[in-house]
Amino acid sequence: xxxxxxxxxxNHEIGIDIGTVNTVIYLKSKxxxxxxxxxxxxxxxxxxxxxxxxxxxxxxxxxIGRTPVGISTIRPLANGVIADFEMTEHMIRHYMRMATGxxxxxxxxxxxxxxxxCVTEVExxxxxxxxxxxxxxxxxVVEEPLAAAIGIGMPINEPQGSMVVNMGGGTSExxxxxxxxxxxxxxxxxxxxxxxxxxxxMMRQNYTLAIGEGTAEEIKINLGSALPMEQEIKxxxxxxxxxxxxxxxxxxxSVEVREAIEPVISQIEDTIRSALEQTPPELVRDIVxxxxxxxxxxxxxxxxxxxxxDSLSVPVHxxxxxxFSVALGLGKILEAPQxxxxxx
Length: 344
Prior knowledge:
The chain is an alpha+beta fold. The protein is built from eleven helices and 18 strands. Strand 11 and strand 12 (172-178) form a beta hairpin. Helix 5 crosses helix 6 and helix 10 crosses helix 11 (337-343). The radius of gyration is 21 Å and the shape is flat.
């Protein structure tokens, strides 16, 4: 869906990958210029529900779990779709200003914005509307798996099968593409955040220790793995004892973290297997030759590509810049007029 207006010579063209966890913005001719958490911190002003925004992005993320009464942190997106329209609008406006320098001549950019391929038309329209409300002159939607595949450099316009698994914070999406379109698409609303939740749950059950999402993310990055490691690692985790309410430190190993996140990884693996089972045989042959490519922040989990390759009997590679694959794909669409015309 597109709303067009008369061109303005001063317009920027930008691509926005609005994720559940991070928002990445690509500015045409400059590359990725914004990579910030999708978090907004607000202060409640009165009982009528009026709010004042006090921080965005990294500054707001530092406040998660540390706010006093009257201040709250909000993630405006859940599972790749808009959960809070007003806060999403404020967040996109803020990041567009960051990307374009905030000058008055550059306040109405043309925007390519990403959505998961599994969302409804209503959810797609909501993304376009919130982008226009945030100050875009024109907005059009690109499906995430297509953008990720273009950003990675996969030959999706050729008559051959390309498979990408985009694992973000809220959604894991598996897509098989050929001739510039999606042939098979499967998505599960489990991804990086689900891994964090599994770690939080394990700490409560095994150690009666309450930890926040920031600590869980740190554990996932430092200790998380999909396969046994040559040398297992440990770290001290600090939190609140659920029994007596006092501070407590426990020694956690990578083996325990791997056991905690195993069910989540298995679910993603089953989704990939299911997509492969539905893929036409000729395209499966191409995928075996070319391999599956993993993108998104969760693709960085240690040993994930080897784990999937072993269980699915298909070569699996991690994208060169998994966090930016979608934004780089949007950039390539904006840079190439013939690509852009396909989506407008």
